[in-house]
Amino acid sequence: AVEPTDGGVETPDDGPIPEPPACEEGKSCNDGDLCTFNDVCAEGVCAGTLVDCDDGNPCTDDLCTGGSCSNPVAAGSCLVEGICWSHGQSNPQNACERCLADTAPTAWSPMDGVECGSSDPCSVGTCQQGTCEVNPVVCEQDDNSCTESVCVGGVCEEQTLSGQSCDDGDPCTSGETCDKEVCGGGEPKDVDLDGD
Predict the structure, then answer these.
(1) pLDDT of residue 8
(2) Do 98 and 89 touch, CB atoms closer than 8 A?
(3) How many CB atoms lie within 10 A of CB 168?
(4) Where are the alpha helices (DSSP H) in the chain?
(5) What is the structure's pLDDT at 19?
(6) What's the pLDDT score for residue 193?
(7) How far is the C-alpha of 104 from the C-alpha of 100, rounded, in Å?
(8) Which candidate, 86, 87, 82, 56, places its Cα nearest to that of 69?
(9) What per-residue confidence (pLDDT) applies to 23?
């Protein structure tokens, strides 16, 4: 609607008068962002071209803060000697090291206590401080002194110890030896020391 004013001049009554633009169209300006340059006013808005912080490495986040670029390692990744690895990946040169992105994104982390490979089926490897320590498989022994459990091809097998000295548990005999799995063949002891 149009209503006359006190001076008799008619003014449109169709809303508030728009504010003037924040910048002059097509002119250089300052958008207040230190991470942009060549700021120009376009359609009443001052905006510039973003600073290019791209380091060309897919393993990093490209950030601009306060006009300075930074390229931290991206979450869930490790950047070791220029190569990008995913969290949990093993070092192809050392099975006792892995990428632990949350704790050490720029270096391999040792995996203590993790089982590592051994070419000998009768040995077992365990990671200690980033190194695979290999030790022989320990087979459980029974109470028979004439047998021994040894690892053969990765399996513990019982073997006899024929000819080896043993103790049959009889205090009145001595000089017993193993005959296959049995300890025996001992001579009676001369308990009265008379030679008989």
Answers:
(1) 46
(2) yes
(3) 17
(4) none
(5) 57
(6) 56
(7) 6
(8) 56
(9) 87
Phi first, then psi: give them for residue 68, nearest 5 degrees.
-115, 140
**Whole-number Å distance between alpha carbons of 118 and 95:** 11
Query: What pLDDT does 107 receive?
Result: 97
- In this prediction, the residues of the chain whose per-residue pLDDT falls under 50 are 1-12
Question: What integer pLDDT is reported at residue 87 of this predicted model?
Answer: 97
Q: What is the pLDDT of residue 21?
A: 58
Q: For residues 118 and 135, is the Cβ–Cβ distance under 8 A?
A: no
> What string of DSSP letters covers 110-162?
E-TT-EE--SSTTEEEEEETTEEEEEEPPPPP-S-TTEEEEEETTEEEEEE-T
- Residue 12 CA to residue 8 CA, distance in Å, equals 13
Q: What is the Rg, in whole angstroms, of the alpha carbon atoms belonging to the chain?
A: 43
